[in-house]
Write a structure and sequence with these properties.
Layout (H helix, E strand, L loop, with lengths): L10 H4 L3 H13 L3 H14 L7 H20 L3 H14 L4 H13 L3 H14 L4 H4 L1
């Protein structure tokens, strides 16, 4: 009689994907668990292949960085928020959301001239966005 191998899922199958981790982070963010949300976003970011990757992975990378920037704004970690926005803007200079969040981070650091430039830039890119004008 031949030896039988138990049906066990490989370890990789037991881990959450980057997309699933992002979703968990978003749920944590919605209930105000900002630090835990940031941890999930950071873990998801670490699971992505190095850049440049496929379009889908790069889009997810940008979303995770924007989410991390928002988390760091909530935690008043303005340098970290700005760094994530800089990373987004390095890949896409026309990302209005990254400009807006970097402007908020710069306001938090009292870098008023740089903040104004970013906030105005975001408004120029998306003049219809009411959040940017509030």
């Amino acid at each position: 009689m031949a030896d039988t191998v138990p049906n066990v899922m490989p370890n990789a199958a037991l881990e959450l994907s980057a997309t699933e981790l992002k979703e968990v982070g978003t749920e944590l963010y919605k209930v105000g668990e900002y630090a835990q949300a940031g941890g999930k976003y950071a873990e998801a970011l670490s699971r992505l292949p190095p850049a440049p990757a496929g379009a889908e992975a790069e889009e997810l990378r940008q979303k995770l960085r924007l989410n991390l920037a928002q988390v760091y704004l909530k935690l008043s970690s303005f340098d970290a928020a700005e760094a994530h926005c800089d990373a987004v803007l390095a890949a896409d200079r026309t990302c209005a959301k990254a400009l807006f969040r970097r402007g908020q981070a710069r306001l938090g650091r009292d870098a008023l001239h740089e903040a104004l430039a970013d906030l105005l830039g975001a408004c120029k890119l998306e003049p219809q966005n009411r959040d940017f004008r509030a």
